[in-house]
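As agreed, record passed on underneath.
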Amino acid sequence: MIPQDEYNTSQETTPSNIFDLSPHEETAPIDNESGGPTEEHPQEEASQEEPTPRKPRITGDRSLWFLYFAFLATSLLFIYSATSTLAYRGESLYAPFTGHLKHIILSIFAAWFCSRLSNSWIRLGGMAFFVLMLLAVIATPFIGTETNEAKRTLFGLQFSEFYKVGVICLASTVLSIRQLGSLNRRFYIFCGITAIGLLFVAKESLSMGLILVAFILGIGLVQTGLSKSLLMIGGIGLGIITLLLACLVLLPDSIIKQNSSTARWKGRIEDFTAKSDSSKFVIDEDNFQEQHARIAIARSNGTGVFPGNSVERDILPEAYSDFIYAIIIEETGFIGMIWVPLLYILLFFKLSRWATRSQRDWQRIFLLGVGIMYTTQAIIHMCVVTGISPNTGQTLPLISRGGSSLLATSMAIGTCIAITRHIREDEHKRALEKEEQAEVTAPESVTETTSTVAESPRLTSSDEADDMA
């Protein structure tokens, strides 16, 4: 680095000589008492003026933020169109849309707050969050508010949505603690703890319980492979589901309580499996939503009727939540049909790529857990709309209307963004350590090379002649 005092300040720079490249006479540096570099220690004085390198500003993955806001923009567009029935029933035309907009703004702040969390806060806070959500889902069937013939909300929130995030936190913690024993043992412990809340969640929402079971099997397959523990847990889960389905189908209507979630699920299964070819075109009370969802898809004609021109939004009772994908296809055709799955595919792909870059087990499990959980829920929603599976009542994550689902999913995405920032910080630290090791080993290698050359015998002229011959 050249000290400032060495510059020639006596020569004035004018417009006439600013492009003059001819050599000029350099003046000697002025030796004064103002702290300029002396002849005795010029290098020491110059090194003191060198600025220390600043740590680069490391942020989370911006593409995840882009995907998150792409989901929210899609939600705003189609929720405004799908809530026409709510606007007609309400006092204000824009009340349903403004209410959803408030939920989105609150969810953005929640995602930003979670994206600033440290590693310790994510791990310790995640376990505390799971315990609170477990207590909430246990208390909901007893003191909760009844919604759609089932007690699903408590204090205005549907805690089963937050319990899904808590289960992801539990998986990332338990499956990464090696002091608990082998991986199979850790998987058993995780399944046992999760099953406590799963029983209360499935009692009020069987489809939510099935999503949690699918998540347990998915994260188990990723962590343990086709192990004995996974096959055992999968066999037990499959046996319980088969037994429940058999009870729903075989038990008479007199035993099953009418107007309950059990009777509702029995009607959905019978409507999906026991229909003849001629009855598929008959719209009754049991298949009303499914049939009109297919009508909405058929009305698109591949090109769509343009956003805001949907007809089925005024007929479908849950057009803004359980069947929002049908309204998207009706209004945008093939574009919307491909756009929505593409968002979830990109989200799962990005989270999987970051999971492979992480050196910490709990970070890898959390990223994969978020991808598995919400991609599975989206697939189930789209299968219901297109008639592949019976109606489950599951929303489309980050798109359907619903404050609890939107807030919980935003917290999960924000935590993933925080983890990507910590992964980059770890990569930066490892790069600095490699540079320091290279700087330490480089002078040693140079010294060894110099000593080797010095110790090697000098060839005489006769020896050189012999070698050339």
